[in-house]
């Protein structure tokens, strides 16, 4: 996996790291959105992605191709191991962006700010029923402030009202590749 040239960028991880960064101008805004289960403004997310594209310590430059990866909270140890292998790829030319875009504002912002810098190859949509997503999130024990039933229900409501239309938008462009995450992680990711 390390030689595939894929760099995993998790929008959620970037946002959580920025929220915790001392002196962050976005920290309180990000925390408020995470706590309320709403979507962080696109300008913030795109800026964090852009910073990671051009981070000289990781060898990434603008204009590189990437993949958008939509995940409906089906994370577990196997997928984390796979993502870690992608993170360790020193020659990344493809970015797998996890958890972005999530609503029409995200799509519009991406197209306005980033489209000239990266090409969407496809959207990987890993579908998982809501009840399984809640169960997996509550049992992952990562200590996230939004891993509680109330926040998860808000996030799922936001997902249905704002993210599903985005998946349909990309389906209309024949860019969506969908797989089911109902089975075990080994079956989904390998």
TrEMBL record:
Keyword field: Kinase, Nucleotide-binding, Transferase
Top-level taxon of the source organism: Eukaryota
InterPro entries the UniProt entry points to: Adenylat/UMP-CMP_kin (IPR000850), Adenylat_kinase_CS (IPR033690), P-loop_NTPase (IPR027417)
Biological process terms in GO annotation: nucleobase-containing compound metabolic process
CDD domains to which the protein is assigned, alphabetical: ADK
Pfam family, one: ADK
The UniProt record lists the keyword tRNA processing: no
Single Gene Ontology MF annotation: ATP binding
PANTHER family per the UniProt record, alphabetical: NUCLEOTIDE KINASE
Protein family: Belongs to the adenylate kinase family.
Protein's recorded name: Uncharacterized protein
Lineage: Eukaryota, Metazoa, Ecdysozoa, Nematoda, Chromadorea
């Amino acid at each position: 996996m390390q030689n595939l040239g894929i760099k995993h960028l998790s929008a959620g991880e970037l946002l959580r790291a920025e929220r915790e960064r001392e002196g962050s101008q976005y920290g309180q805004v990000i925390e408020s959105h995470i706590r309320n289960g709403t979507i962080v403004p696109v300008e913030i997310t795109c800026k964090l992605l852009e910073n990671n594209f051009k981070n000289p310590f990781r060898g990434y430059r603008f204009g590189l191709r990437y993949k958008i990866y939509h995940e409906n909270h089906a994370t577990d140890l196997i997928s984390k191991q796979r993502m870690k292998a992608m993170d360790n790829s020193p020659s990344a030319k493809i970015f797998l962006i996890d958890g972005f875009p999530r609503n029409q504002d995200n799509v519009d912002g991406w197209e306005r700010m980033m489209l000239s810098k990266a090409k969407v190859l496809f959207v990987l949509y890993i579908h998982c029923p809501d009840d399984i997503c809640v169960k997996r999130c509550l049992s992952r024990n990562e200590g996230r402030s939004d891993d509680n039933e109330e926040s998860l229900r808000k996030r799922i409501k936001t997902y249905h009202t704002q993210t599903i239309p985005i998946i349909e938008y990309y389906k209309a462009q024949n860019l969506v590749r969908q797989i089911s995450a109902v089975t075990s992680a080994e079956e989904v990711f390998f």
